[in-house]
Amino acid sequence: MRVWTIILVALCSFYASADQTSSMSLLDNRFRVDPSIKQINFVIYRAKPSKPVVLVRPDGEKYYVSNHPSNVSWYQESSMDIISIDNPMPGPWQAIGKITPKNNIVLISHLKLSTDRLPYRLYQGELLKFNARLTADGEPLVLRDFLNRVKLKVTFTKFIENEEAVVSGKKPSPEVIGEFADNGKGLDEVAGDGVFTVELPITSAPGKYRAQITSGNGVFMRAQEQEVLVYPTPVQATFIQSHDEEQPNQVVVSGEEGIIEPGSLAGTIEHITPYDDVTTVQGSADPD
Length: 288
Hints:
Elements: E1 7-11, E2 24-27, E3 30-33, E4 39-45, E5 54-56, E6 62-63, E7 72-77, E8 80-86, E9 91-96, E10 111-115, E11 121-123, E12 127-136, E13 139-140, H1 144-150, E14 152-158, E15 175-179, E16 195-201, E17 207-215, E18 224-231, E19 235-240, E20 250-255, E21 266-272, E22 278-284
Parallel strand pairs: 11-18
Antiparallel strand pairs: 1-4, 2-3, 3-9, 4-8, 5-6, 5-9, 7-8, 10-12, 12-13, 12-16, 14-15, 14-17, 17-18, 19-20, 21-22
């Protein structure tokens, strides 16, 4: 077997030394991991199709896609492996597998996930624009092969006091609210700029939740978490049917006093007949 040349992504601790770009270096087909590194990600390109690589630790222990410790996350495709390791052993590592022409090495340091802050008070039925950013050394991360596979998502999990004491089968399951995209579509403004955007529809039942922003495939697990409260919608719509052929039906929209700013309500109603004819009516509240 021949030793691989790989793309190496180093996820460095926020508290690591200032010059992380020299923390790893290529030496005789080995990648030397400095003791200051708290997490690393290997992005490994291999011949298509081929088997996943074998990672060899400095002490000779081997990691396989089907057999590795709990501090290792492994995502694989027919021609790529992305391997995340928490608290890697310092020293020279090897990746063994079929070599490819992609013989370049990229070292990314000070990788950081930052997100907008959700409002503490949310309302059923509202729609939010929410952004997340991956940066390296303070600059947007644009390594597409890595970003396209991170699959950041937002989940809501019902809040429980002392959740650690609850048996695993009784713990609430997270509900996926939305997935981020950096493709210039929908609410995302610019494709490939390192800013990920998600449209969040608040459909969860009223209550307290843990909101998490995390990776959908385990490659990048630096989750962001905050607590939020979901309240019932403060807007009510009432349909009033007319019993007089000369008078139209009505839809009355009202807002909860003290929550909705007077004059801020606007609405759009679509009426579809049995013959698929569509009538659209729009209206807004008076400022008074």
